[in-house]
Amino acid sequence: xxxxxxYEVPDLYGEYVKKYNDKPDFTFFADIDEAFQKLRTGYAAxxxxxxxxxxxxxxxxxxxxxIDTSRLSHWGEVIPALQTFEGVxxxxxxMMLPLDWGNSSIVFRTDLAPEYVGNESxxxxxxERYKGRIAxxxxxxxxxxxxxxxxxENIWSLRDDQIAECRKLLEKQSKLVRFYxxxxxxxxxxxxSGEIVAAYAWNDAYVRLKNDGIPVKYMNPKEGILTWxxxxxxxxxxxxxxxxxxxxxxxxxxxxxxxxxxEEYGYGHSNAKAFEIADPKKVADLGFSTDPTKMLAQxxxxxxxxxxxxxxxxxxxxxxxxxxxx
Length: 326
Description:
Layout: E1 2-4, H1 14-20, E2 27-29, H2 32-40, E3 47-48, H3 55-60, E4 64-65, H4 80-83, E5 89-90, E6 93-94, E7 97-109, E8 134-137, H5 141-149, H6 160-174, E9 177-181, H7 184-193, E10 198-202, H8 203-211, E11 216-218, E12 226-235, H9 242-253, H10 255-265, E13 268-269, H11 272-277, H12 280-285, H13 292-297, E14 300-301, H14 307-324
Parallel strand pairs: 1-2, 8-9, 8-10, 12-14
Antiparallel strand pairs: 3-12, 4-12, 5-6, 7-10, 7-11, 7-12, 7-13
Helix pairs in contact: 5-6, 6-14, 7-8
């Protein structure tokens, strides 16, 4: 398994552990660009964890193989809309097993930034009042956030002049950030201590902070929240036993795995039965619709960025960081 850190816990694939009394070997990546580059150079993994916006790029690079859903006992329990979602099915074949879905937004301390309570906006990581108390995700997603603040609608295909305007905003932000993060535990600890006021984050960071009694809120920004759908894909360089690979995929689809995902990570899960057996209060506390089609449609779903434009986003963001010295 070539995976995001945090997804190695056996509760997410309990049926596999029960059958084999073991778990797969895990290695981890910090962001999807790192995963892609390593896999493209021949790294041998059986499975990895991309999202729908990555799939076309991974397919073009010949990294993934189709999934035979007839070998999955829980496939029939998957929310129907996700079985055919764009990026899950490409060219008539299931190329990614849809599993987890959620948001990317800002988590902030309501006691330290009361101005944004009821006035939720992507503008907070550019607010000079919080200089030295902001953290941003160390990826080119920062470019997309800047584009939203500037009011651009074509956030996945910015023109050169728009990228230049985003750069000005990100250069301003680089003088305000405390740090750029690659591990969410960094921002959770910094928010809990009050070292920072706000950070780009995923739902699970908010859930853990809230459970620890920290006064935080997860924004639904007026410019539109970012949404994503991710899952597991079979890698062409995999050398593991095929039946074990399918057993692992099926275990991830199990409703009990989804229950754990919902309750402990604050993400949606693709198995409809998971919502039926999860704690109703915790489901309600998620703050978003348990219908992924409504959830994914309510904001800006991460979409495929053409390779040439994505390179411009990455290059610009890296140049801004290098000049900032952060």
